[in-house]
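Trying the structure run again after the queue cleared.
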Amino acid sequence: MATKSSWAHRLLVLPAALWLLVMLVLPLLVVFVFSFGERAPAGGYIPAFSFDNYLNLPARLTAFKNTLILAPLGTFAALLIAYPLAYYLAIKASVKIRTTLLVMIIVPFWTSILIRTYAWIYILGGRGIPQLLDWIGIEGVRLINTPYAVLIGIIYGYLPLMVFPIYVSLEKFDKRLLEASEDLGATPMKTFRDVTLPLSIPGIATGCMLVFILLMGEFLIPALLGGGKVFFVGNALVDLFLQSRNWTYGSAVAAALVIIMLVTVSIYMKLVMRGAGQREDVSLI
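Done. Tokens:
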């Protein structure tokens, strides 16, 4: 028999559960239903039950390939850049410097990602970095409308989302552990490996998951910095739903992307949890 306390907990959870049901679960169900339908003559959806849309997924193989290569690569590159910055902010920087750098990280979010990406079009275009390289004798370098431009854009756009979870994870752990490790004769590298890095794993896991999931659905940065030559699945979805109005095929592409993301994130979280369990077992020995 449910107690008053359990009913109170259910009532507290009910608004969030309804929100997730209406805003997440129901739209996904609609997408999956549409994915088995047929395209109407003028575009849209005709009820049916066919696997033709899924069998035609290889036609968008390039978009899937670009997404599955550049999204993990961008996530890893953002991690390599974000971790030293977050470490410096949380461990080494004074309060004044820390505040200044945190503000500088936040400031880009005060402007639209569209405006910031357009700025990178100029920086990576013919009158930007390539022209500067020409002046120093390195000729023929092309950056805009290449995978490198897209990679630079996504690192720049999503770097703060990687920095803040790692910073919070590093900032909240007890700094006396570092002093204890040093007093016990551990080298700075060993202290980082055995103390700092394990304690920052939750922040790394959160940052990587945030960036990776958002990158899997990215379409603006590839569209502008890729110049139509570096397509993500997000670009394919925009084309299928808004241009060709092939809602059923677009739904199949979206469903395939969701399944890939669910499998990838599940495996990733399982590995993270297994690593956390192994560290706890070692700490108890």
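The CA atoms of residues 271 and 277 lie 10 Å apart. Worth checking whether this holds up in the mutant runs.
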